Amino acid sequence: MRIIRGWLYRCGEAGMTTAEYAVGIVAAVAFAGILLKVLTSPTVQSALTAIVTRALK
């Protein structure tokens, strides 16, 4: 093991944090895209409109 800037790294693991962030960002963007698609569908929009209308009465 070698010490780099106060952290212990095994050989080949120095770039793992960056790769993990990249995978996390890709997953978050994919989830946001699916959520956007669901929330903009006519069925969900009419259900949400009905809920808000009923709550405001």
Would you spell out the secondary-structure blueprint of this structure?
Layout: E1 2-4, E2 7-9, H1 16-39, H2 42-56
Antiparallel strand pairs: 1-2
Q: What does this molecule look like?
A:
Helix content is 68%, strand content 11%. The chain has 57 residues and is mainly alpha-helical. It has a two-stranded antiparallel sheet with strand order 1-2. A hairpin with a 2-residue loop joins strand 1 and strand 2 (7-9).
The residue fraction in helices comes out at 55-70%
Give the ordered list of helices and strands. EEHH
By helix and strand content, what is the structural category? mainly alpha
Put simply, the count of helices is: 2
**Beta-strand segment tally:** 2
Low-confidence stretches: none
Strand arrangement, largest sheet? 1-2
The radius of gyration computed from the alpha-carbon positions, rounded to a whole number of angstroms, is 22 Å
Give a quick account of the main beta sheet: strands, pairing sense, barrel closure.
Answer: 2 strands, antiparallel
Mean pLDDT: 82
How many angstroms separate the termini? 67 Å
